[in-house]
Amino acid sequence: MPTQKSRSKTSEERHRFPRRRWRAMVLVLVLAVVPVLSLVALTYSELMLVEYEAAQISLRKAQARELALSGIDAIRMFLSLDAETQAQAGGWYDNPTIWSERLVVDDPDPRRRGRFTVIAPNLQDGYYSGIRFGIQDESARLNLNAVLVMDKQIPGIGRELLLALPGMTEDVADAILDWLDEDDEPREFGCEAEYYLTLDPPYQPKNGPLETIEELLLVRGVTPTLLFGADVNRNGVIDAEDSSSNLSPEVGLFDEEGQVGWAAYLTLWSMELNLRSDGTPKIYVNKDDLESLYTELEETLGTHWATFIVAYRQQEQGDNSGRNQSGGGSNNSQEGSGDDSNAEEEIESEPSGELDLTQPARTRISTILDLIGARVRVRYAGEEETKILLSPCQEDPASLAVHLPLLMENLTAVESPVLFGRININLAPRAVLRRIPGMTEEMVEEILARRPQDPLQADTYFQYETWILQEGIVTLQEMKSLMPFICARGCVYRVQVVGYFDGGGPFSRIEAIFDASKLPPRVVFWRDLTHLGFGWERESSGIWSY
């Protein structure tokens, strides 16, 4: 029989073997769990790193957007300044000092150093070519909503204006006008609801003003190629970012004017201030209170002009004493005409008496140009005989140079403080200038040759559209026919602002349109163009490559 000692030893050995096995199992488990935990930790670390990088990218995108918004605010502030202060700062048209690589956030690390740049398409000989650092005047474009208003006033003029666009045809022009007008009667080559309701899906025409240029894509015959051309990045010029593969045969039919598409020539917001340069109201020459009118005119332009303009208003509609008038009261006769009564009346170049200001106004002045070279029959207070008073401003260049800027600066025949849709001849591209009603090819070439490259740095008289009359590019009668369609400056501005970092990374590109007719300027249109790319060759625009 085994002794107690032997039994105890056997029992101890029996218990020791399972304990060794358990220890081995723990080691195996540890070796298995530690890699799993390591993988989990690594995965978690990588996930957190990705989340951190995503958060950083989102943050930098937001910062880039804020850099672009800084540019928007800087433009709003600049446009709030008076014209003299703007000019002293270099102006808004082409001013690299304040619109190129403007530092917003300074930092030794270029990845955190933020800037904005304001870039616009440049004009060379009337064609869009390259870029400049500045703002665009919307009045250099054709206002689609104003075209319909003009067409109502002068039937057929709407189609003529639209045909200025490269590749435009009569059927598409009429379709656009039918889309805008309120009636359901199609024009000669147009279409109304009866056409659009046959489409899949059917829809109704707008029959009202457009809200965006892209709405034109709903109009029969308007294609993306016609509207945007090869300008894929929507910067107004054809550059390296616009691949030659984008030049479809449809675009190829056009010259360089058509490659940028109609969008480069169209707007919905252009207007101009009908105020003096200092922002004060002009004298409204068609007001009914002639005593008040005379006082204002005398204080601003002197007795001769005050007497002449009030006498012009007092004469009978169609009085023969005038010369070369179109639409004014003293019209339809030439100097030295066969009117026998004129031969007996004294002609004077200065007023010799005082007018009876209690006499009512009988004639309206259709345009300030009616006053140039005109003559009026006057009967001074206390006198029985009438006399012929000559206008202080005659048609000779010397007289025009003295008087015309004063008239344009201080007088208006339209009571509204703003005028809509006229085209800025100082900035309009060749394609728009060419089809202004009454504009000939010779006039276009002369305007392009003589207008200043930067209209803000030119002589004062370029501020008025009548500079083409002073330069002898047009006659007085031609100028009168052009006046409803042209201007020399607007008060609505388009901007494209890019916010970016010197060291690369995300950027933001914003397009906005400011209405500066009232202060502070307000944004009337806003669009994020970041998804279309940077928009310009970064080397040429001074923005460093990423």
Lay out the secondary structure.
Blueprint: H1 4-79, H2 83-88, H3 96-99, E1 102-105, E2 114-118, E3 120-124, E4 127-132, E5 136-137, E6 142-143, H4 144-153, H5 157-162, H6 170-180, H7 193-196, H8 224-228, H9 249-252, H10 256-259, E7 266-267, E8 271-273, E9 283-284, H11 290-301, H12 303-314, H13 340-344, E10 346-348, E11 375-378, E12 387-390, H14 397-410, E13 411-412, E14 418-420, E15 423-424, H15 430-433, H16 441-450, H17 467-470, H18 476-482, E16 486-487, E17 492-501, E18 508-515, E19 522-528, H19 538-541
Parallel strand pairs: 6-7, 9-13, 10-12, 15-16
Antiparallel strand pairs: 1-2, 2-17, 3-4, 5-17, 8-14, 11-12, 17-18, 18-19
Structure explained in plain terms:
The structure is a single chain. The protein has 19 helices and 19 strands. The chain has helices at 4-79, 83-88, 96-99, 144-153, 157-162, 170-180, 193-196, 224-228, 249-252, 256-259, 290-301, 303-314, 340-344, 397-410, 430-433, 441-450, 467-470, 476-482, 538-541; strands spanning 102-105, 114-118, 120-124, 127-132, 136-137, 142-143, 266-267, 271-273, 283-284, 346-348, 375-378, 387-390, 411-412, 418-420, 423-424, 486-487, 492-501, 508-515, 522-528. A hairpin with a 6-residue loop joins strand 17 and strand 18 (508-515). Helix 11 packs antiparallel against helix 12. The N and C termini lie far apart (93 Å).
